[in-house]
Write a structure and sequence with these properties.
heterodimer; A: 248 residues; alpha/beta; Rossmann fold; six-stranded mixed sheet; four-stranded antiparallel sheet; 9 helices; 26% strand; B: 706 residues; mainly alpha; D-Maltodextrin-Binding Protein, domain 2; four-stranded mixed sheet; 27 helices; 69% helix; 3% strand
Chain lengths: 248, 706
């Protein structure tokens, strides 16, 4: 498998806070890697650095073998980034927002129209594609936002808690959309709080705590190393928290 | 920067802004409603009040003996009801009737030469004055007319009789009562004086001595221009800024609050493209608002009278020039708004950040309201004040092309600084993501080896150097031209340029193109250097001939204030020094910054800034042309040396000619306004040959380098 993403020793400080401490990660084409960590563990900071919207204090991000810092625009061209902080313009409708981002990604008008139509159909957005974003429900907004991240057919998808605050049905819809991207050979790096999602989607999982990766590997390896029966226990054990009622 | 991306961002920002009711209201609704409501409302209110005062009768208390003929005159005039001793305390009445009190002394004559009425006398600390004040403040009467003891007798005896009118200037009805009584007494006095003169058979001018006639030569346009010029800059700048205010907050802090800023940063666009696109949209909104403001104001002014008998009649060209002058100030204000707005976390925060900036505009704008302050060379470099005073000058029809150029130049410099600042803020992703990056980090000049100058750096250094050089040179005027030239060139042009290169960690050799040129390029540079003046100074000066004052000041510069210095010293000061310093700045750092724009845009942009730096509209074309020649030489040879040779020879030759009257006469210049055509023709041929050599030399060197 082709190595799409290689993050090497990423470090970031915000004042005295060590948000990322020499984090290294790899994601190959057709692979889903999950980033699991409690709130404040540094997931969003790491994903932002990998997406090229935050500059690391040290360390290097390689996208398709090329350093991101050497040509950030070319790297962003092959990255699709989505997080809870990436919203769409409230006074535009999803179709207009997709047209806008398509042009920013340098897509020609006709292929862009075809791609938008395809995404509207795939993500079942036709009923609200013409309505201003500020009138949409959370689930509808999330789909439109996912469509924006998929729009330019990127090699690497970086999704920061994509199912956060969604109901089960909408969340499942997004999870299936991610599976389809994996099946299409995209490299996917995503963070989540939902262990079930990680177990279902991820080929490999990185457990993050206080800005450092404390364990990393396929799910069976993580369980074996932690001696736990499920991912939740393995996660809690790795970050030094015991489940209420369980033996210390 | 990619035009397609810029246009995409610009179009989207404008579309979103135009779907925002607040922006539309501030841009179109407010100006359309405000001026008519404010002006016509105020005008109607004033007229209504005036009519009400005229219709109402005044009640005047009369303390003292009023001669019957004066009483009859007052009554015949109408609208005045006289009430004897109304509100007068017994003690005051008794004192007046018994002749126990006397009027306050007559103050010495003032020397006010204008038409304004003399200052009201201060209220004396006397019981009669306090009693009058109480009667008026208690609304028992509108005014009190005191006829001092002996009033009728003094009139009868042809002496001076004294009357005092007490009134409350705050109450319009009290002022009206004062006016009515004063009018009658003035007419009575003049009539009485005529009668006294006639009785004594004195000549008719005996009592008048001199009849003063003052005539106001200001035309109606000037009178209304003064009023419009006082109000208009203030209103236009504030309202134009206010319309950009909301859009700027919405596009920065608003985007952060709505979470769309990060979405934009995910896309493959440069920070400079984002800020430029957003800036274009904010500026378009501010410009539309300015146009609507001007239209609304001009229509309102054409329909109202701000002062009785004054019609606001301004030619449309004045409004057009005012619009043109608002362009640089709106560039500057909106760039500052965008940059500062980017630090705010949300819309409310943005309002808190930007409101002080908006309010701070009021301070310099008050200057336009101050009579007597006019635009000069110093004020032309004071931001906001310069534009406000120039707009005022346009409406008074008092403006000069050179001053307009200076104001536009300095304002564009400040606008460039503000834009570079805004772009620098947008380069800090942590600021845009709402991180903890502080305000001070934007001014971070830490060295980043390997970096290359950008167009933003070019604009920054140009604007900085120009402003420093302007204010620096003012403080050096007393030290004479040689010191001024040396300090300005080395200390204010060369030093900041070298410091910036060092601070930013640029490669000196690469940035300043420090390479030895080919001999062919040197020969070409010599030919261009000795002939460029004939093309630039001869041909282009014919298109826009400079005024005599500029020609004289240039001659003064070339002659070094007529100081008897040897020619080599003149060459050092006006040829070699500018060639070294100005070329390092312009064809060195500035051209390097523009390099990424491509050959011709870079050369032309650098030449344009070089032309602007000479701070005169009449020198713009010749210096721009020289800048193009120097830039082409630097670009083609990849060395700054040929440009320096051209520059030094061009200036040196001009200084030599200025000092050699005999040579000038031989060449046919003596007394001629322009360079003769044969000289221009020969100069053009030599210059073309020099250029050919430079281009050929440059190609050879490029081939070698490749």
């Amino acid at each position: 498998m082709n190595l799409t993403l290689h993050a090497d020793s990423l470090t970031k400080y915000f004042g005295a806070v060590h948000a990322a401490n020499s984090v290294s990660l790899e994601v190959h084409a057709g692979e889903v890697v999950g980033l699991l960590g409690p709130n404040g563990a540094g997931k969003t900071t790491i994903l932002r650095m990998i997406a090229g919207i935050l500059t690391p204090d040290s360390g290097t991000v390689y996208i398709n073998g090329r350093a991101l810092a050497a040509d950030p625009l070319a790297a962003k061209q092959v990255i699709g980034f989505h997080s809870g902080d990436t919203q769409l313009y409230q006074r535009l409708n999803p179709r207009e927002a997709l047209e806008y981002f398509g042009r920013l990604y340098g897509m020609e008008e006709q292929p862009l129209s075809r791609r938008i139509a395809q995404l509207i159909e795939e993500l079942e957005m036709s009923s609200f594609a013409g309505r201003p974003c500020n009138t949409l429900s959370s689930g509808q907004r999330q789909r439109a936002n996912i469509a924006r991240a998929f729009l330019h057919d990127p090699n690497l998808l970086i999704l920061d808690e994509p199912t956060n605050a969604l109901d089960v049905v909408s969340g499942q819809f997004i999870v299936e959309a991610i599976r389809r991207q994996k099946a299409a050979g995209r490299a996917v790096l995503f963070s989540t709080h939902i262990m079930g999602e990680a177990e279902y989607l991820c080929d490999r999982i990185a457990l993050l705590h206080q800005g450092s990766i404390v364990d990393h590997g396929p799910l069976p390896d993580l369980l074996e190393r932690s001696g736990c029966a499920n991912l939740t226990d393995a996660f809690l054990k790795n970050i030094g928290v015991s489940r209420p009622g369980s033996a210390a | 920067m990619r035009p397609r991306i810029l246009y995409t961002i610009y179009r989207k920002e404008l579309l979103e802004a135009l779907r925002d009711r607040r922006t539309i209201f501030m841009m179109i609704g407010l100006p359309l409603l405000l001026y008519p409501l404010l002006m016509i409302g105020m005008s109607r209110l004033q007229e209504g009040q005036e009519a009400a005062q005229t219709a109402r009768s005044s009640t005047v208390a009369v303390w003292g003996a009023l001669p019957a003929d004066i009483e009859a005159a007052i009554k015949s005039k109408g609208k005045v009801e006289l009430v004897a001793w109304d509100g007068a305390p017994e003690k005051v009445r008794a004192a007046l009737e018994m002749g126990q009190i006397s009027p306050p002394p007559t103050p010495p004559m003032g020397l006010d030469a204008d038409d304004t009425p003399p200052k009201q006398r201060k209220m004396p600390d006397q019981p009669w004055a306090k009693a009058g004040q109480k009667a008026i403040l208690d609304r028992k009467t509108d005014a009190v007319l005191i006829l001092w003891p002996g009033f009728p007798q003094q009139i009868a005896a042809s002496q001076t009789a004294v009357a005092s009118i007490l009134f409350d200037s705050v109450r319009p009805e009290s002022r009206k009562a004062r006016d009515r009584i004063s009018d009658v007494l003035r007419v009575y006095r003049e009539d009485l004086l005529r009668r006294r003169v006639a009785q004594r058979s004195l000549p008719s001018g005996f009592a008048e001595v001199i009849e003063m006639q003052s005539t106001n030569v200001a035309s109606e346009q000037r009178k209304s221009g003064m009023l419009v010029g006082m109000l208009l800059p203030y209103m236009l700048i504030i309202f134009s800024a206010m319309s950009g205010f909301y859009a700027a907050i919405d596009m920065t802090a608003g985007e952060k609050e709505r979470g769309t800023m990060q979405t934009l940063l995910c896309a493959p666009v440069e920070s400079l493209e984002i800020i430029t696109g957003k800036f274009g949209a904010v500026w378009t909104i501010a410009t539309i608002a300015t146009v609507v403001n001007l239209l609304s104001l001009s229509m309102t002014f054409s329909r109202i009278k701000l002062m009785p008998g004054t019609q606001m009649h301004m030619p449309p060209s004045s409004y057009f020039i005012a619009f043109i002058m608002l362009i640089p100030i709106s560039l500057m204000i909106n760039a500052v708004f965008l940059a500062v707005g980017a630090f705010a976390k949300d819309f409310k925060d943005g309002q808190n950040f930007l409101t002080p900036i908006l309010m701070s505009l009021l301070v310099p704008l008050v200057v336009t309201m101050t009579p007597g302050i006019e635009l000069n060379g110093y004020l032309a470099f004071v931001p906001v004040v310069n534009i406000a005073l120039l707009i005022k000058g346009v409406f008074l029809n008092e403006w000069a092309a050179d001053m307009l150029f200076l104001v536009m130049l300095s304002s564009l410099c400040y606008a460039s600084l503000a834009l570079v600042f805004a772009a620098n803020v947008f380069e800090r992703n942590a600021v845009l993501l709402g991180g903890r990056e502080g305000f001070a980090s934007v001014f971070d000049f830490s060295r980043r080896p390997g970096q290359k100058p950008t167009p933003g750096v070019s604009l920054l250094i140009f604007a900085l150097v120009l402003v420093i050089a302007f204010y620096g040179s003012i403080s050096l005027l007393d030290y004479g031209l040689p010191v001024l030239l040396l300090v300005t060139q080395y200390g204010m042009f060369l030093l900041p340029c070298l410091l910036l290169i060092r601070l930013k960690g640029y490669d000196f050799r690469e940035t300043l193109q420090l390479r030895a040129p080919s001999w062919r390029a040197v020969a070409g540079a010599v030919l261009v250097g000795v002939s460029a003046w004939a093309v630039a100074g001869g041909l282009l000066v014919r298109l826009l001939p400079p005024p005599d004052s500029l020609v004289k000041s240039l001659e003064r510069l070339l002659m070094l204030d007529e100081k008897p210095v040897p020619l080599w010293e003149a060459w050092l000061l006006v040829a070699i020094t500018p060639a070294l310093c100005e070329e390092t700045l312009f064809r060195g750092l500035i051209l390097s910054g523009f390099r990424r724009l491509g050959k011709w845009p870079a050369i032309l942009a650098t030449a344009f800034l070089f032309g602007l730096a000479h701070a005169s509209i009449y020198r713009l074309l010749p210096t721009l042309a020289l800048g193009v020649l120097f830039g082409l030489a630097a670009w083609k040879t990849r060395s700054i040396v040929p440009a320096m040779i051209c520059h030094a020879l061009n200036n040196g030759l001009m200084a030599t000619l200025a000092r050699s009257k005999g040579l000038m006469a031989e060449l046919g210049f003596a007394g001629a306004k322009f360079v003769p055509w044969p000289i221009i023709a020969v100069g053009s041929l030599v210059c073309a040959a020099g250029l050919w050599l430079i281009l050929a030399g440059g190609r050879r060197q490029s081939d070698t380098t490749a």
